[in-house]
Amino acid sequence: MKVFKFGGASVKDAEGVKNISKIIQRYDEQLVIVVSAMGKTTDALEKLVEAYYDQDNNLEQEAFDRVKDFHFTLISDLFQNGELIKKKINLLFDQLQQKLSNPPSLNYDFEYDQIVSWGELLSTTIVSQYLNDEEGVVNQWVDIRPLLRTDENYRDAGVDWNLSGEFMRKQFNFNTQKVYLTQGFIGSTPNNLSTTLGREGSDYSGAIIAFALNADSLSIWKDVPGVLNADPRWYPKAIKIDELSYWETIELSYYGAQVIHPKTLKPLQNKSIPLYVKSFVNPDGVGTVIRSDVKVKELPPVLVLKQNQIFITFSPKDFSFIMEKNLSQILTVFSKYRIKINLMQNSALNFSVCVDMKRNIPQLIEELNEQYLIRYNEDVELVTIRHYNESVIEEIIKGKEIVDSQISRVTARYVLKKCPWDFS
Ligand code: ADP
Ligand code: ASP
Ligand code: MG
User: Ligand 3 centre and the CA of 391: distance in Å?
Assistant: First the structure.
């Protein structure tokens, strides 16, 4: 059996849903199909969470209506007779409204997961019904939450591999079904409270299911021909890479290549399950295969850009050297605020980090302000170049102010004031 994952871009409109039906029909085999929220639904639900949390009724209603209208427009484009699906979707929106009618708890991340998880419930309900009723692609809709058991680390939940594996093997047994359709991104705690695996986590869900079921492969269907040597949105010269090892891909996703969620690779590597990154626009294309026995002699330079970064430098006010004690203190505060460090550097008197510009950074700075002199550069960008050469480095840094750099044998990293590929 195979696991397919279709992301938000592949189901962003009725044409997209029709297209994934065509792709599925090319495969006459046992499938578990994992689907993300449609288009930008998760972003829209994030706005809803914020409005709910701020108890701003107008904004909340606006955000709710936007999500609802989007899904109902899609339904009217997809279904000849949409009575049944409209009933099901109305029910989901009623349940969401019910949730919103109670005031939020103090735990923002908990509230976030309870609400944002609706995106995947809506999308999979629509896609599953469409395939069954309009396309004759018989499939069983499955709520993944009771099967994908996690801890209570809301918004970045940790997976209980043993229990999830057991539950999934029981549910996805293919005794009477050939095709199952379920949600990416979401799971639940032992108390059946919804959790999420982190933004873009549906790729990871695909890998968890593939791991649990010992799948032949996981295919993730994207709007790009495969893994390219840079994001084509801002590096138009990007070229496709045909084959990659798990290790190389883990490195790339770790540095921020957004094409695959970083946690996706490890479970696949552990069971040597190949990962195919394929184009839903051109399903005949070979895409990229990621597996263990890849012996690519030379990869082209691979570029990863992270935007909206802040570069922060800490210097002890008492002029003490940066030692383990300071590092541990600073890192503990980063961990407390759940801010991931994308790059770090230290010298005798300075410790610097490059991190995503998040809304709790001012609180973090406030907390360390007493002991450290803190300077920062806002709105910088972090560029990572794997397998670099002189000419690509020159191209990337030309005319830019370098705030910081780190160069190792394989990887060159620059914190820059303005991105060279910013064609917007
Ligand atoms: P999904 O629909 O599965 O959520 P994403 O939008 O998360 O898909 O990922 C696909 C996008 O990733 C592409 O449209 C592309 O702009 C971006 N991307 C970033 N880095 C790369 C890369 N190295 N190769 C291919 N695509 C990349
Ligand atoms: N819908 C979620 C998100 O947009 C998960 C995913 O798409 O992978 O982050
Ligand atoms: Mg995505």
Answer: 32
Ligand 2 atom closest to Cα of 204?
Answer: 8
Read off the pLDDT of each residue in 13-30 and give the average, rounded to a whole number: 97
Check which CATH number belongs to the domain holding 179 and give it. Answer: 3.40.1160.10
> Is residue 423 scored above 50 in pLDDT?
no
Which domain CATH number covers 389? 3.30.2130.10
Query: Is 283 inside a domain boundary?
Result: no
Answer whether 184 contacts ligand 2 (Cβ < 6 A): yes
Please state the domain count of the chain. 2
pTM (two decimals): 0.92
Together in a domain, 169 and 316: no
Nearest CA to ligand 2 atom 2: 200
Within-domain flag for 332: yes
Ligand 3: distance of its center to the CA of 117 in Å? 14
Q: Which of 119-133, 141-155, 362-376, 406-420 has the lowest mean pLDDT?
A: 406-420
| Domain limits for position 335 | 302-417
Domain boundary among 181, 199, 222: 222
Which of the ligands is closest to the CA of residue 203? Answer: 2
Written in H, E and C, the secondary structure of the chain is CEEEEECHHHHCCHHHHHHHHHHHHCCCCCEEEEECCCCCHHHHHHHHHHHHHCCCHHHHHHHHHHHHHHHHHHHHHHCCCCHHHHHHHHHHHHHHHHHHHCCCCCCHHHHHHHHHCHHHHHHHHHHHHHHHHHCCCCCEEECCCCCCEECCCCCCCCECHHHHHHHHHHHCCCCCCCEEEEECCEEECCCCCEEECCCCCHHHHHHHHHHHCCCCEEEEEECCCCCECCCCCCCCCCCECCEEEHHHHHHHHHCCCCCCCHHHHHHHHHCCCCEEEEECCCCCCCCEEEECCCCCCCCCCEEEEEEEEEEEEEEECCCCCCCHHHHHHHHHHHHHCCCCEEEEEECCCCEEEEEECCCCHHHHHHHHCCCEEEEEEEEEEEEEEECCCHHHHHHHHCCCCEEEEEECCCEEEEEECCCCCCCC
